[in-house]
Write a structure and sequence with these properties.
This protein is of the alpha/beta class and 368 residues long. It has 13 helices and 15 strands. It starts with a strand and ends with a strand.
């Protein structure tokens, strides 16, 4: 496929409910969508960078700049036959993985359409029905959190993950465990603690958690390895794993016993598959993390989650948990038993609601 044009769009979408982590609270999302066109095919990608550079160094505005100045010029006019060719095209640009992922995933999306196969099959997936969990942010009160957990359990979700930070951890987990002693429960600190909190972090062991996610610095592997030796609870690394090399180093050092794979965080499907393959070689389970994606990114997460190493319930939950209207149809839905069925339709498996996308668009640029 010869790429003839690239369209960038920023859409702004309000959330159904606020979402709060140790970084702060958000009530909506600014989302960058990338469209690659050529030979009658359109491939679409979603950039998961936030409005602010808090989760990572990237933001939607840095991603837009990279797209205009470097990534779009690297692909315009080129013949690209496979999504796997993308990393080499962008190799000169260091970092900016979320921006790169939007372009690469659009290439995989286009390739799946051209080959008339489901995207999940093109990626090498095999698990047609993926298990789902939910991520619940910090709430205004413990009672509000417990009510949300009750609602998500009733909806069938197989794993509950709650955000924690100093001052919002032990009391919360204690109340959850008293009410639901047997549910599959995990927590995510988003780097809210430091090695000085070592004794405090050992206290998480008493709650029978599936894992504690990214307790220490976002760029650390070494100190996580020291912490994991002190904890019975499995450490899961998220922000620290930028590529397959990071994954191999973390697993060799014993820095974690579980990996979270976010396709945007690692730079696209190619690197996500490579991280998955490293984890399988070490016998370590992985799961697909979420970045509050709209339906396009959510459909790509569904496809990635069909790879055989994704044995733990991920954060690929239903569209209605976040959006009053999603930009795809049908919306992503979760069964009563907490699973999502992968579509057999060619490509991403979901149609784009182009009229809604146009309504939500606040800026747009076409490059040829």
């Amino acid at each position: 496929m010869r790429i003839e044009s690239v369209t960038l769009r920023e859409i702004q979408v309000p959330l159904v409910d606020f979402f709060e982590t140790s970084f702060g609270r958000i009530t909506g999302r600014r989302i960058l969508l990338v469209t690659l066109r050529g030979e009658g095919i359109e491939g679409w990608g979603e950039c998961v960078a936030d409005a602010d550079p808090f989760y990572s160094e990237e933001s939607i505005d840095t991603a837009w700049l990279m797209a205009v100045q470097y990534l779009a010029p690297a692909v315009l006019g080129r013949v690209v036959n496979a999504g796997r060719e993308a990393p080499a095209l962008f190799a000169r640009v260091r970092g900016h993985r979320m921006a790169k992922a939007a372009f690469e995933n659009a290439m995989w999306d286009a390739e799946a359409q051209w080959r008339e196969v489901p995207l999940w099959s093109l990626l090498g997936g095999s698990c047609r029905e993926i298990p789902c969990g939910v991520s619940i942010g910090i709430q205004n009160s413990h009672e509000q959190l417990l009510a949300k957990i009750e609602r998500e359990l009733a909806a069938g979700y197989q794993r509950i993950k709650v955000k924690v930070k100093p001052g919002w951890d032990f009391d919360v987990l204690e109340k959850i465990r008293v009410r639901w002693p047997d549910i599959l429960l995990s927590c995510d600190a988003n780097s809210a603690y430091s090695p000085a909190d070592g004794e405090h972090l050992k206290g998480f062991d008493r709650f029978g958690l599936l894992m504690i996610e990214q307790p220490l610095w976002n760029d650390d592997i070494y100190f996580h390895s020291a912490l994991q030796r002190e904890l019975k609870t499995a450490v899961c690394l998220d922000e620290s794993i930028r590529n397959a090399r990071d994954a191999e180093a973390a697993l060799e050092l014993g820095a974690c016993r579980i990996l979270n794979i976010k396709v945007g965080r690692v730079g696209g499907f190619s690197e996500a598959i490579a991280v998955h393959d490293v984890a399988r070689r070490f016998g370590v389970p992985v799961w697909c993390g979420g970045m509050i994606e709209a339906g396009l990114g959510r459909s790509h997460n569904v496809a990635l989650s069909t790879l055989p190493g994704f044995t733990l319930p991920g954060d690929v939950s239903a569209s209605k948990r976040y959006w009053r209207e999603d930009i795809i149809e049908p919306e992503v839905t979760v069964s009563a038993k907490g699973t999502i069925q992968a579509s057999d339709r060619p490509g991403r498996g979901y149609e784009l609601r182009r009229d809604l996308i146009e309504t939500l668009t606040v800026r747009k640029e076409e490059l040829k």
